[in-house]
Amino acid sequence: MTVTLIVGGGFVGRAVAAHLAATGGNPVLASRRMPTGSDAPWARLDAADPDACARVVDAVRPDRLVLVHGPSDVTWCEADPERAKALHSAAAAHLTAAARGRRTVLISTDNVFDGTRPDNDEHTPTAPANAYGRAKLAAERIVREAPDTTVLRVSLVYGWEPAASPKWLNFFAACAHRLSAGEQVEAPDDQWTTPVHVADVAAVTAAALAPDTPGLLHLGGPDRVSRAEWAETIAQGLGVPRSRVVRVPKAHGRYASRPTHTCLTSTVLDDVLRRHGLRVRGVAEGVRDLLEAAP
């Protein structure tokens, strides 16, 4: 059975592990702290420690790796940019060295672009507008120097997370919990994204582990929406007044450091989806599917 080491036990890492387990794989999560809400085997790992990376790879003996390591909190990275870059770079360097040529996928971000364009494909020049984007781009460059690797840039990922999760809940979960509780939600009407359902991210990540995948791949959803429009779609799905969504400029609050356009398009994704029998759902379908399966 194929063993996949997934470095990062957060929201996306757990989803990738669940998808691989459900499709006959053998995933192992590795992170500093034991992940909650996952049945996958777990190994404790400080990815900034080269010896620890070598020990975990030797112990798990993976056939392939998925790197979803953090820190991914944009606000935290902006407060400590040098440490953010050092952590992302160290993990990428140590794991590609320890993996010794094993097939590897790095999950990266749309924040490697400056936000001036409404679409960014694999040929768009990178120009990070924030510290998180600069840290991820540094990790990308390290991974792309290693053999048999793919960098998978992903747009804003969404899905259910418990209301008791930390303050950096993904946008869908934060909106759904607050709107369901009768609260208002402030959402910028001048920050645009191409959101991707977490289950679709997991499926495409699994497909990207195939050795014939391009070295750089963009995964964005088919809909380009502002966060305010997206929040109103969530409100409509919940059957609550759309007026509970308060439109604000992105400069107001936590979205100030986000690029205006965090949107991804692709010149090669359609071919990958076709070869693996996959499709990426739009925002309305994704919201409907999540609300129908509400925990």
UniProtKB/TrEMBL annotation:
Listed SUPFAM superfamilies: NAD(P)-binding Rossmann-fold domains (SSF51735)
Cross-referenced InterPro entries: NAD(P)-bd_dom_sf, RmlD-like-bd
Annotated ranges, domain RmlD-like substrate binding: 5-270
Any one Pfam family match given in the protein's UniProt record, by short name: RmlD_sub_bind
Protein name per UniProt: Sugar nucleotide-binding protein
Lineage of origin: Bacteria, Bacillati, Actinomycetota, Actinomycetes, Kitasatosporales
